[in-house]
Amino acid sequence: MKVIDTHCDALLKLQTARLEQRKLDFRDAPEIETNLKRLEEGNVSVQFFAIFVNPETVTTIDQWKYAEEQANLFHEEIVGKNENVKFIHDWKDIHTLGPGEIGAVLTLEGAEAIGNDIEKLQKLYQMGVKSFGLTWNPANLCADGAGEPRGAGLTTLGKEVVQLNNKNKVLTDVSHLSVKAFWDVMELANYPIASHSNVRAICDHPRNLYDDQLKALIAKNAPIHFALYPVFLKKDARTATVADLCEHIDHVCALGGEKNIGFGSDFDGISCYIDNITNSSGYDYLLNELQKHYSEEQVRGFAYQNFINMLP
């Protein structure tokens, strides 16, 4: 059974290695949880790769340079050196993937890199960014993130970015937004997505979504993809099981969102794991376990079909 995974941080690991003058091969480096070998073993047919520039460690003057470098690594190391990895430049490209091919989608997590320069946003579109998260956890010039105590919504710039995303059929990712910014996005976005968030009613974490937020995403036919991260599954946990993930799945199903559910592992950006799912190869185990609780059709939906049905 194929899998579509809407979030990983492999690009940051590749960039960090290059900056430290270490050689890291995307094909099989054990440090990369979403390396090519593991994607193949987990039958991942489409993997989203996030450009992420940590605003807490990278100075403002360097943020665009760091983002460009990660985009270049995506095109050189992930797509350029692997014949079976295909760049998803247009959403319809997903439908043309052949047997054994893996679609690679470029995304952005946090708009710090563009500052207030819309030309840089246009460059990101040209580089192939197909999903745009306005914030990481802090605030920036577009919006407040989930970790910003002020909890403000979108700025004028943030609203312009969402409207440009709409025009370019780029997803607007709500996963790291403040609650107020979430609602501002939902009012404007044609193509919202929660790429890696879980259920706040089960695990009260600022990165998770309240029921009214989940219902709004369901009403807008938006993907709700769960992170495979114990911290988002159980309060103050460092370990979790597939049964813990099923609680989140069951909750969204009860809200009417069975056809919205998918996965955004957050591999390469997390430090603890669901039992037996420590990298992309673990999807085989995950789907087998899920079929003990759900029908094959339901699991196929969670794994990839729901997302396919919601493509712009």
TrEMBL record:
* An individual GO BP term: proteolysis
Coiled-coil stretches: none
Q: Which domain of life is it from?
A: Bacteria
Molecular-function GO term, any one: metallodipeptidase activity
Where are its TM segments located?
A: none
Q: Which InterPro entries match?
A: Metal_Hydrolase, Pept_M19
Q: Name one Pfam family in it.
A: Peptidase_M19
Database matches in PANTHER family: DIPEPTIDASE (PTHR10443:SF12), MICROSOMAL DIPEPTIDASE (PTHR10443)
Q: What is this protein called?
A: Dipeptidase
Q: What organism does the record attribute this protein to? A: Oceanobacillus sojae
Taxonomic lineage: Bacteria, Bacillati, Bacillota, Bacilli, Bacillales
